[in-house]
Design brief:
By secondary structure, the chain is of the alpha+beta class. A hairpin with a 7-residue loop joins strand 2 and strand 3.
Length: 111
């Protein structure tokens, strides 16, 4: 897959992926980056510089909300959690994705 195609697909699915991970548990930025790479593999590597604008958009849309968690040692970390509105939007995105991919698969299979 070319880098351009990979970037476009990633851009179109990153919000859904972030919401899905946050629906499972609250995370901070680096945890999200690591979880995406661990769960999806190299094809979905995301740099923190790419992730944070997505987090800010989701926060502005009231789909996630941040909070600060003080660790036992070190500096506090900014965690993100999904909101009820974010959970609803995640379900909508999943349904849209399933319809879209089913259509593309039908096309590719020649049906």
């Amino acid at each position: 897959m070319s880098d351009m195609v990979r970037r476009q697909l990633k851009r179109g699915t990153l919000e859904m992926a972030v919401l899905k991970l946050l629906a499972e548990r609250d995370m901070y930025g680096y945890q999200l980056v690591a979880a995406l790479e661990e769960r999806v593999g190299e094809s979905f590597q995301v740099k923190e510089g790419t992730l944070y604008p997505v987090l800010y958009r989701l926060e502005d849309a009231n789909l996630i909300e941040p909070y600060w968690e003080p660790p036992e040692r070190g500096v506090p970390r900014k965690y993100y959690k999904i909101t009820p509105q974010g959970t609803k939007r995640l379900q909508e995105l999943i349904e849209e994705w399933q319809v879209f991919t089913a259509g593309v698969n039908k096309l590719l299979e020649g049906k």
